[in-house]
Write a sequence for this structure.
């Protein structure tokens, strides 16, 4: 059973400077809701109530967001503004939040390893908040993955087919098909941000993972890879060699809110659906 979701949230968000100079990128709003709140809502919808957040310097706003603001709530009590806080209030009441800090930026693998203290030795989910996922009124992406985990009990990465020239932005998987589910693959190999000529496929990993806890020991001995950083892709590769990683082509849409273009697309998408 998956009870905990890890949110690596220590990155600098340099692509959004100057907005991210003093504001965590995870707090940038799509409409009126910060990116990380979409992620927490997705985890909760998947039945997960423990949110484990890896933060860093300058990220205090995330902790304050998932807490009560007595002064603010007192001010707006009984006014027409009160309902605007209801959603986040309900969310906070259903979840627990714990935090640890990543002191140095040494890659996604290192961020996940930093979260070990919050996760312990159980399988867990990972959400990268800047990959904003939605499946309309259907099951969310993480919920779909948790259902698959319950059946297969191994690590799972969410994948999406991307244009050939974009593979170098992602972890890319080499897969073989599985019986009974044309959206599920067994991962044979994976490579972080390959040159398009060397990519094993066009199936790119997006920011949703379910990981078994042996990943922590693997990460501890994973040397720096692409960009001199400790890559989760490299650690997963070791699990994949033992046939213990599945790739899932999820139902739904994903916006790359780590880029300005993706962020604007997400904003337009959610704006168009306000009245639904
Ligand atoms: C990270 C991972 C990469 C994955 C991507 C998904 O890269 O290292 O394998 O495909 O997230 O968004 P980043 O976007 O942090 O450079």
């Amino acid at each position: 059973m998956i009870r905990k979701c890890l949110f690596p949230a220590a990155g600098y968000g340099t692509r959004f400077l100057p907005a991210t100079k003093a504001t965590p990128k995870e707090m940038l709003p799509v409409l009126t809701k910060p990116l990380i709140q979409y992620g927490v809502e997705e985890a909760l919808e998947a039945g997960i109530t423990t949110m484990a957040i890896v933060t860093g310097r300058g990220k205090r706003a995330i902790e304050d967001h998932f807490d009560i603001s007595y002064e603010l709530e007192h001010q707006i009590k009984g006014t027409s503004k009160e309902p605007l806080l209801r959603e986040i209030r309900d969310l906070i009441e259903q979840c627990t939040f714990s935090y640890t800090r990543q002191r140095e930026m040494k890659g996604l693998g290192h961020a996940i390893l930093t979260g070990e203290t919050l996760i312990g030795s159980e399988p867990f989910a990972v959400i990268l908040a800047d990959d904003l996922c939605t499946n309309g009124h259907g099951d969310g992406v993480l919920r779909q993955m948790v259902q698959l985990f319950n059946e297969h009990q191994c690590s799972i990465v969410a994948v999406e087919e991307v244009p050939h020239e974009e593979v170098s932005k992602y972890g890319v998987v080499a897969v073989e098909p599985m019986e009974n589910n044309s959206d599920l693959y067994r991962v044979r190999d994976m490579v972080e941000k390959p040159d398009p000529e060397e990519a094993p496929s066009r199936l790119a990993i997006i920011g949703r993972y379910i990981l078994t806890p042996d990943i922590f020991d693997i990460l501890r001995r994973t040397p720096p890879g692409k960009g001199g950083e400790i890559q989760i892709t490299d650690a997963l590769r070791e699990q994949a060699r033992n046939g213990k990683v599945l790739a899932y082509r999820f139902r739904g849409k994903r916006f790359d809110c780590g880029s300005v273009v993706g962020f604007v697309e997400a904003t337009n998408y959610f704006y168009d659906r306000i009245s639904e």
Remarks:
- The chain has one domain: 4-275.
- The longest strand covers residues 181-192.
- Residues 260-272 form the longest helix (13 residues).
- Residues 108, 128, 131, 170-171, 192, 204-207, 231, 233, 258 surround 1-O-phosphono-alpha-D-glucopyranose (CB under 6 Å).
